[in-house]
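Supplementary Methods, section 5.1.

A reviewer requested that the exact input to the structure prediction be made available. We therefore reproduce it here, unchanged from the version used in the analyses.
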Amino acid sequence: MKMIPIQTLQVSWQRMALTALLALSIAPALRADGIYRDGVGAQSMSMGGSDVAWPGDPLSSLSNNPAGLGFLQGNQLDLGASGSLLTGHYSNRADTNGRLSDNFSGLPEGAVGFRLGSLPVTLGLGFYPESGLLADWHYYDVPGGADGKTTYGYQQFKSEIIVLRTAFGIGIQINPMLSIGASVGLIYNKNELQMPYIYQNQPALPRGFKTLLDLQTEGWGVDGNFGIQFHPNDQWELGLAYKTQTGIQSHGGATGDAYAQLDNLGLGAAPAAFHYDAEVDNTLPQSVSAGITWKPSSKWTLSGEIDWVDWSVFNTLPVKLTNGSNAAINGVVGSSSLGDYIPLDWSDEFVYRAGVEYAINDNWSLRAGYIYSKSPVPDSTLTSVTAVIAENTLTTGVGYHRGAYGIDLAYQYSIPASRTVGVSELAGGESSDSTMKLNVQTFALTATIKF
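The structure derived from this sequence is encoded token-by-token as follows.
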């Protein structure tokens, strides 16, 4: 085998850390709506997130259609929490019993809406997680790498993504039938990744060079949400909302060790460890939602919604490394900074939602819903840490309201999804001949106070 200069290999470790950072922005989520939640607040979640057309509450209005604020009567406070439990199985050529740790992850959420006296204007302020999932896989690393034989044995493949939104919104009731609204959100994004990672895009090296990586980044962005709701009569409600793209520059560090790869290339004496400051320039997708609600009687409410999500923004992801600590690497490249990208090739998709509510009496309500969306991730780039593969989700819930107080519970169950990768287009081929089976259970509780 032709030996590769040690200086070139050292450069590759830096570039591998760079490309690996992209996985931080798309840690696995098992939701019909990609990495996003299917509704915010227990009432919305129990009806499949199909709330763009009905007023709802401050929490669901700020997250989906701020025009709903305009139809709120008086002041209202929503406080609650939501969380998810993931389970799954993974098999590859080296391990037929890969597993997910049973980690329950949850975060608080809340919102308040204030009616401005006799004016037809309501202001809203809230905070909630748009995405918050932890996937902690454990399985044997498939032999591969630059030499086709490199493995790091039994490893942790851990990825986490948290997207939190703090929003300020306004809803204006134009007349008894029409309301418009807008909100602006401050987005916090935290990402973590720990796994063997395979180098993708360095023409000076053979494809598939492999290293252990431990990466973390966090950053901030700003988005906007605009909506309209139209209630022509007591039976019908219509809604339309648009959410902007969100650009986020997340910063952190990347450390790693390529000892196994170097040993197999006969370069075990070379320094294998590295550390760099990292930046990921990520873009979260824009979306458009349209919905309709029908109330055939005082007891029944039926709602439907269609969302279009611009997942094609996850086509490639530019990333940067700066302040490299290895003087030898910096000398070879003539700089302490580098840039790179990796292909993802996600596709735009529609999300279809339906929900129903039945009022048992003046206090108790039962709810159910269904969500469908095709997975945006192609087999060609699918891995265990980008396994957004769910397509069907069932939802249910119950609500109790008496006077100024209320409490709602929601449960969502993603029907177990399975995907098999035959031949992966990613370098190294470690994802070829692999199968992923995943499902998630999501829970939410929301307490309401009107004042």
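Residues 212 and 389 are 26 Å apart (CA to CA). These observations are discussed further in the main text.
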